[in-house]
Write a structure and sequence with these properties.
Chains A, B: Pfam families: Aldedh (PF00171). The structure is a homodimer of 521-residue chains. By secondary structure, the first copy, chain A, is an alpha/beta fold. Chain A has two domains: 34-259 and 472-483, Aldehyde Dehydrogenase, Chain A, domain 1; 264-446, Aldehyde Dehydrogenase, Chain A, domain 2. Chain A contains 15 helices and 19 strands. In chain A, the strands form four sheets. In chain A, strands 11-13-14-9-8-15-16 form a seven-stranded mixed β-sheet, with helices on both faces. A five-stranded mixed β-sheet of chain A has the order 17-2-1-18-19, with no helix packed on it. At the A-B interface, strand 1, strand 2, helix 15, strand 16 and strand 17 of A face strand 1, strand 2, helix 15, strand 16 and strand 17 of B. Strand 16 of chain A pairs parallel with strand 17 (485-491) of chain B, so a sheet runs across the interface.
């Protein structure tokens, strides 16, 4: 779908697969060509000027219209997404709500208008030795953004997900590279965006969507001279490949790659002693939520050997072994999960604490939850144990004492999240560990679970490498918009020709930093 | 100077050169070794934990103490900097004031404390279907920063310049790679930082400074695993070489390279007709200020053919041919300037409007100001004419009409600044040109000159590639601090263990965005 038109230049066709049964689903999908990608980017660049100047109200109306069109799809969308992703209906309904919620959040952000970070330093004509000029700056959209759909969020991180919503909110046209695991879901959502664009009078090039069963279209999109930024949520390998492609361009552009992590959970002795069963039941649920297919899945549990830890392990093992098996997103992901988790169980010193039963006839699509254990010494010496295994798997590291716990922490790479489970009175004792953990993560949680990423202003979903390739930005929450902008300063400009955000009298009534104070005056 | 100690592991020695005479200046300087670089980074990493938690007051006191120690150097510093850079005494005095002013600005920023962008979304325990957690985030320093001293600002963009001041303000230790053109100036300033660190009780590793007459130490610093960010102001070639080195690391880090630009000035017909002499005198001064050795030097003037333009050219030619010659920063820069400007004059269609006389005996160090002219057609077809020539040179492009002027604008790459010289009543006619220009620049100036970059909150000194490699950040003004931080979110954290910036009751009384409203409450 290039700038409002459906094209099928390629004669090849691919089909969607029912994740649970492996059967083909209805619908023919055409891989895009290099020409399609070029057309989409030229149309996006053409639409950019009109779209970036369309005004806050109309841009917000467009975002709200997308949300409304997606809601209007109702059961048709849910059924298709369930079939393609293997995720249960309740999850897809929840994710649809999150998707429309994100679109409406960004619409509100645009309507309110303060997100542009307007900064005004007024002139001081009498300053000595030199007069100070009037300087005003605000954030401006960078241009066409390429969004890669993610396999694990067929709605909330796909065609009209957080990346698309935040890029459109910033004023950037979007070209989506559809994830081949949910082409039908994508077609429905893409059509919803098209209807919303037409209904709100947006330029056609503001949105395009390209299919590909392989990698070539993605490569063309990332290398295209008109592309100004790229977003990706997925594997380390995939993210790094895109970052490398971007680094080879003659004009550099940012790639925002969220590549997942193992999200360590530190279980402090007090909590293990006082409430091992509560912790176990919280974590059995978090590790296996959505078949463990979340970027924030807790893949690593750390504790100091104690009776409490023993009780926790025994309860968590019992609960995880009873977890019903679940359909994974694709047969490939399922196969990969089982291969990697079985390989880790063969690593030196790793023992199996629990493995759930697979159920159903379509075994190729079903995940078994796995809890493994290892000593701190073995964990520290084996980098392989620190790699993410995408699925309902967690590794429990047993430390002898606090010193060894600190060594484990020191061996960890960058993470999206880190969690501490502890009693209020023992936290002060572990401030050094907590401080070390804060240095390797984007979000640090107390007595919760890392799964369930709140979409709000204060959210940071992005941690030090290799969790992401740029820890300065977030892909969840309203600050995701800051990935697609750059500042522009206007010096001694004529007031009426300034953008309204920077004009005297503050006509949009936004928050602005005027001579270093935030004000709406 | 590694973490407070002077080391001279290398037996090689190099000397400073008097820019005007070519003679050696007193003082032996020792190139650093790979071991020195490693020691400096390990000391920086060791100091990081203490330094980032030192508190706003003490960090600000350190910055103010550096400023005071630099001021106390007085004439010793001025004389040495004049000798090494060839810049006149008034310029060096002014630059010293700017340097201490920057340090004090960042001290104020740190004391005031709001720069950390604290964002708080409070819990909603009763929200359905899921309770909303309490999430609070703020910016945190990334770790050791490597600063490359710039040749053209021996004080304000060197050892204790804007990069160092903003990195120290952010809470990051700094390792400076000294520019070999002003080693003695650097030694004086480095000693001032050392004294300030000792007087305010800072950890020794917070600052190190390494010499090298070549490139190898810089390469080691950029590639070192403990380096978290790099700043550079200089040539396109130098900046891109550092960016490439960083891209080859196994863990990516940002390089902030400000690589200069030609800073186009569009002369609108009304102003040319009404005040050609005023424009000419403004620009004769701006083009030749500091021997044209500013990143924001106006290297390109654009106008539509008219009587007014003819008057402007004739007056500007007269003024520029009368400009006294000036000592350039280094004999190499001077040679490069004359070679490149003479080569451009040989390009097809380029004519010489004015060339000033060289004076004095030391011709190798003296610049002649040059004004050249070319038609729009020739300019558009020859990319070489769009390259920066570092020195007192400007090229005037003559367009037939507004359409051709727009084509010239469309041929331009990213710029640090763009300037419009126009009468109030004619600006509305040129909104399309102005809009196009706004898309390729970091700062857009009306009826001024691009030289003279105000150090303030609203300044943006950083434009689209190739002016910089990352137009999202600025290297001048208080926002320069945002190059060295990343957000960290705290979820459901115990209030007393949060950083003070995020605690209930706002103990530091900073501006915070609480539930999407800026407040000091």
């Amino acid at each position: 779908m290039v700038a409002g038109r459906y094209v099928s230049s390629e004669s090849r066709v691919f089909h969607a697969i029912n994740a649970a049964t492996g059967e083909s689903l209805p619908g023919d999908f055409y891989p895009a060509t290099e020409q399609d990608a070029d057309d989409a980017l030229k149309a996006a660049q053409g639409a950019f000027k009109e779209y970036r100047l369309v005004g806050n109200e109309r841009r917000a109306a467009f975002l709200r219209a997308i949300a409304a069109e997606i809601s209007a799809l109702g059961a048709v969308l849910t059924e298709r997404a369930v079939a393609e992703s293997g995720l249960p209906e309740a999850r897809i309904s929840g994710e649809t709500g999150r998707t429309t919620g994100q679109l409406n959040l960004f619409a509100s952000l645009v309507e309110e208008g303060s997100w542009v970070d307007a900064v005004i330093d007024t002139a001081q004509p009498d300053r000595k030795p030199l007069a100070r000029p009037d300087i005003r700056k605000m954030l401006n959209p960078v241009g066409p953004v390429v969004v890669f759909g993610a396999s694990n969020f067929p709605l909330a991180f796909s065609v009209a997900g957080g990346d698309t919503a935040s890029a459109l909110a910033a004023g950037c046209p979007v070209i989506v590279k559809v994830h081949p695991a949910h082409p039908g879901t994508s077609a429905l959502v893409g059509a919803a965006i098209l209807k919303a664009a037409a209904a709100t009078g947006m330029p056609e090039g503001v949105f395009s969507m390209l299919y590909d069963s392989g990698y070539s279209v993605g490569e063309v999109l990332v290398g295209h001279p008109l592309t100004k930024a790229v977003t990706f949520t997925g594997s380390y390998k995939g993210g790094m490949a895109l970052a490398k492609l971007a680094a080879e361009r003659s004009t550099p552009i940012p790639v925002f790659a969220e590549m997942g992590s193992i999200n360590p959970v530190v279980l402090l002795p007090g909590s293990l002693q006082k409430r091992p069963h509560e912790l176990a039941s919280k974590y059995a649920a978090s590790i296996t939520l959505g078949a463990g297919q979340f970027c924030t899945n807790p893949g690593l549990l750390l504790g100091i050997k104690s009776e409490g830890l023993d009780s926790f392990i025994s309860e968590l093992s019992k609960l995880m072994s009873e977890i019903p098996s679940a359909t994974m997103l694709t047969p490939g992901i399922c196969k990969n999960y089982h291969t990697l988790s079985e390989e880790v169980l063969q690593e030196k010193g790793v023992s199996l604490f629990a493995r759930s039963e697979k159920s159903g006839t379509a075994e190729f699509s079903q995940s078994a939850a796995i809890l493994a254990g290892v000593t701190a010494t073995e964990f520290i010496s084996n980098p392989r144990l620190r790699e993410e295994i995408f699925g309902p798997y967690s590794l429990l590291v047993l430390a002898e004492d606090e010193a060894e716990l600190e060594q484990v922490v020191a061996s960890l790479e960058g993470q999206l999240t880190v969690t501490i489970m502890g009693e209020e009175e023992e936290l002060e004792t572990y401030t050094d560990v907590i401080d070390s953990l804060s240095q390797i993560t984007g979000r640090i949680i107390l007595n919760g679970v890392p799964t369930g990423v709140e979409v709000c202003h204060a959210m940071q979903h992005g941690g030090p490498f290799p969790a992401t390739n740029d820890s300065r930005f977030t892909s969840v929450g309203s600050d995701a918009v800051y990935r697609f902008v750059r500042p522009l300063a206007w010096q001694d400009w004529k007031n009426e020709l300034l953008p309204p955000e920077l004009q005297d009298g503050n006509p949009l009534a936004i928050w602005r930093k005027v001579n270093n104070n935030w004000t709406k005056d």
